[in-house]
Amino acid sequence: MNTIRRSTLPHGLRIVSEHVEGARAFNVGIFVGVGSRDELPGEHGASHFLEHVLFKGTPSRTAEQISAEVERFGGDLNAYTTREYTCFHARVLTEQAAAALDVLTDMLSRSLVRASDLGTEREVILDEIAMHDDDPSEVAVEGAIAALFDGTRLAPQVIGSATSIRRMSTARVRDYWRRSYTSDRIVVAVVGEVDHDGLCATLADFDAELAGASEPAREKAVPAPRHPVRVRTNDLSQTSVVLGFQTFGALDPRREALALLAVALGGGMSSRLFLEVRERRALAYSIDCSEAAWSDTGLMTIDWQALPERTAEIMDVVAGIVKDVRRDGITADELEAAKGQLVGQSILHYENPSSRMSRLGGAELAGETRTLDEMLDAFRAVGLDEVNELARQILTQTPVISMAGAPAPRGAARRLRERW
Known about the structure:
CATH architecture of the largest domain: 2-Layer Sandwich
Strand order of the largest sheet: 1-2-8-3-7-6
CATH class of the largest domain: Alpha Beta
Helix content: 40-55%
Order of helices and strands: EEEHEEHEEHHHHHEHHEEHHEEHHHHHEH
Distance between the termini: 51 Å
Oligomer: single chain
Largest sheet: 6 strands, mixed
Number of domains: 2
Number of strands: 13
Strand content: 15-25%
Radius of gyration: 23 Å
Shape: globular
């Protein structure tokens, strides 16, 4: 049986580990509880910029040595940034665990963060922004978030803008790093054949090095959709459309019911939206409904990609299905199917030790301490009335609408919002 243990070191560093007897892989992630929504004016993109430059060298390692120390034994080292946290992670053979931990802690506490490093990575990030701008599905999702949370720190895209990245100075990135990367904002999550007490002893110096006063609590994101329809067009064949609805935070007790509603509506090939839009009418290759949450708020989306001349018809079909669900709810059979799908997908996903490590770290940052089995039991316990009451609450909102790609017929979005 796997054992999960948690500890907090003297300066606030949290450590959570899952011991897997006989595991040959060691998965470690250092989760820093700052992301794009924690950036002050003039810092847009600083979290993401820092994610890049911390790989560029320390007093004891060059950038090449940082990657080679992990990769030469078949491991991998990477990082990603979200709106609420940044994660640096590695997957190595168990016998390389100490080396991986040393590389990661060296990067996060002792990186050089030189002007030359920012100059190099600035160009890489600008290329990344251009790549993002070329993906209409990503642009449409970001547009929905920007429309729903207009004027809050949740609205800007995580990677920064071309303007903010060009203006970012070395001093600003260094200041953001030293101000934000403090022990009491960091979780180290490990899955593998790990000695938890030994891990805590190994990380004691890291905890002390990053000791410092934490930043004030982040401001709450109150929706203020001043421009509820966002359109960004370019010369493509299809239009990507996202309808966005505000939901609630990650620890809200309604999260399980919301996830089941999203699956029943558009979470697979047997969902209502897919059957009607794809199978019966052949209007789009796919259509999905999904949900996401941050610490204090969340988002449910309905999205599709299709030929632009089909946009208005798909919107009409979606509005009709949503109206039916608002009025009559989903059926008991749909709820049971959604439970089976969600529980099964979760079990299969978390068979992967890297996925379990990511869940452990992210959940610990968020204050979620339930085991996977407890989470699955919560899905199984959701009742039909609970889901249908939530559907009435969420789907009564007039959605924000974001479109990207080929220009859709004028007035389609306005008509949808008017008849919602």
